[in-house]
Design a protein that fits this description.
Order of helices and strands of chain A: EHEHEHEHEHEE
Strand content of chain A: 25-35%
Number of strands of chain A: 7
Number of strands of chain B: 10
Largest interface: A-B, 42 and 48 residues
Shape of chain A: globular
Strand order of the largest sheet of chain B: 4-2-5-10
Distance between the termini of chain B: 14 Å
Structural class of chain A: alpha/beta
Helix content of chain B: 40-55%
Largest sheet of chain A: 5 strands, mixed, barrel
Helix content of chain A: 10-25%
Radius of gyration of chain B: 19 Å
Radius of gyration of chain A: 15 Å
Oligomer: heterodimer
Shape of chain B: globular
Number of helices of chain A: 5
């Protein structure tokens, strides 16, 4: 296994295309959280021709819903949730310009196809190491859907968030080893 | 007859919720430390991060995982216990409310599965009660994440499928689950009974400590065989490959009908949270 490569957001198309399945990456910069309920709403907004709550342009969507923030801390525990539940929403968002997603677990063929077609990448974090990952978050700001509680969209500034390239723009899948 | 006041149940449930979410149970920790010795490369790195995460959680008093689960509570109520001062179900839910609020645990429960509004206090819990001999009340709290719950399966096999059918179903379930349930997992299997009883047994199997041997030698052998086969699947820690896909397989069985062979497989993630106390 190789060493970690450090990347800073926003990621350029060239950088995204240079990533290969299995690469270990540290992400530094801005990520936006969005999970089930936020995806539901974003797709409804998309269908209605409305603007997205934030610009996708080179930005990263992190499928995550943190635990509550304790006094004196930046954020509670935070880590990737299962990507598959967002698979029905993702292709439309990718077509709209979303290029980089962080979550955990395997993706559908439709998402794989969309990533290949639009030159995106899917990064996987290790699920359930959320106390460790919370230490990478340097600031947190509510962006949209406050009523969704842990499922609200938040803008996070992260430093060296550890991920692995799960699905690259050429369609190579780190989970594809005879089983998923 | 021993009296137990509901307020003691509430405070104990609250304490167990927080402890289960923040402090890794010793059996899980020991199993992961064993796994570190046999893994290398990515699998080793993932396991080391999981252990480091457990240490940070304790040090900073924060949950191991942001998904602090749907709270499953097993109550073993001694038949000589008299619960006083209020309603038992309310007391347990009040404990969950208190634990999840005071412990800064995530509120992940929607009050209705179709209309989906968050209850904002993680109630109601899933409560299983059994009446047992004696004058004690045993409370087991298992905050169950749904990344692993969603990959769990139940199938109504028939007698002709036999033990091979059971083994195949367990392996198919784990294979299909792949990276999603946050391996290394604990696999709870319930065989027999009926539809709901097999599922309950599978859930109960998850709260048994890793490393404890099934008292039934036939089932102990089945557990060992399944564990070996699951760990040969190369799913590995976080699904990134390796020899540690499961830390344990626990099988519970119960009498069933001459026409039936229900099998439930409940998957627990690498945190496999469970804490218990006796009042």
């Amino acid at each position: 296994m190789g060493e970690y490569r450090e990347l800073t957001t926003p990621l350029s198309d060239e950088t995204i295309r240079s990533l290969r399945s299995g690469d270990m990456i540290y992400i530094t910069g801005t990520v936006y959280t969005a999970r089930d309920a936020a995806h539901q709403r974003m797709s409804e907004m998309l269908a209605a021709g409305q603007d997205m709550p934030f610009e996708f342009d080179g930005n990263i969507v992190f499928y995550a819903g943190p635990s509550p923030t304790q006094p004196g801390m930046v954020i509670g525990s935070i880590g990737p949730t299962t990507a598959g539940r967002m698979d029905s929403f993702a292709p439309a968002l990718i077509a709209r310009g979303l290029k980089v997603m962080i979550a955990k677990g395997f993706r559908s063929d439709a998402v794989k196809k969309a990533i290949m077609e639009h030159g995106g990448v899917y990064l996987a974090g290790v699920g359930g190491i959320a106390a460790l990952m919370s230490q990478c978050v340097k600031s947190e700001e509510l962006v949209a859907f406050e009523d969704l509680g842990p499922e609200a969209i938040r803008k996070l500034e992260v430093e060296k968030l550890p991920v692995v390239v799960a699905l690259d723009s050429a369609g190579n899948d780190v989970y594809d080893r005879g089983n998923k | 007859m021993k009296e137990i006041h509901v307020s003691d149940i509430t405070s104990k449930v609250a304490e167990l919720c927080i402890k289960a979410c923040v402090v890794v149970s010793p059996d899980v920790r020991a199993s992961m430390e064993q796994a570190v010795k046999i893994e290398k490369g990515t699998a080793l790195r993932v396991l080391e991060d999981m252990i480091k995460n457990q240490d940070i959680a304790i040090e900073r008093n924060m949950p191991i995982c942001q998904d602090t689960g749907l709270t499953v509570v097993f109550l073993e109520i001694g038949q000589d216990v008299h619960i006083v001062g209020g309603d038992l179900t309310d007391a347990v839910n009040e404990g969950v409310r208190k634990g999840y609020t005071e412990g800064y645990l995530r509120k992940s429960v929607v009050g209705d599965p179709l209309r989906r509004t968050n209850t904002n206090d993680n109630t109601p819990a899933i409560i299983h009660c059994d009446i047992v001999p004696g004058d004690k009340l045993k409370i087991t709290v298992s905050p169950k994440g749904v990344g692993s719950e969603n990959m769990s399966r139940l199938k109504m096999l028939t007698p002709g499928d036999g033990i091979e059918g059971v083994k195949n179903f367990v392996l198919e379930t784990i294979k299909a689950a792949g990276s999603n349930p946050c391996p290394p997992i604990v696999v709870g299997v319930g065989v027999g009974g009926n539809l709901e009883y097999s599922a309950k047994m599978a859930k109960q199997a998850l709260v048994r400590d890793i490393g404890t041997k099934n008292p039934d030698a036939y089932l102990a052998d089945l557990e060992a065989e399944l564990l070996e086969k699951i760990n040969a699947l190369d799913i590995g820690p976080a699904g990134l490959g390796g020899a540690t896909t499961a830390m344990a397989v626990h099988v519970n069985v119960y009498a069933t009908h001459i026409a039936g062979l229900p099998v439930a497989v409940n998957i627990g993630c690498h945190a496999n949270r469970h804490e218990e106390a006796v009042l």
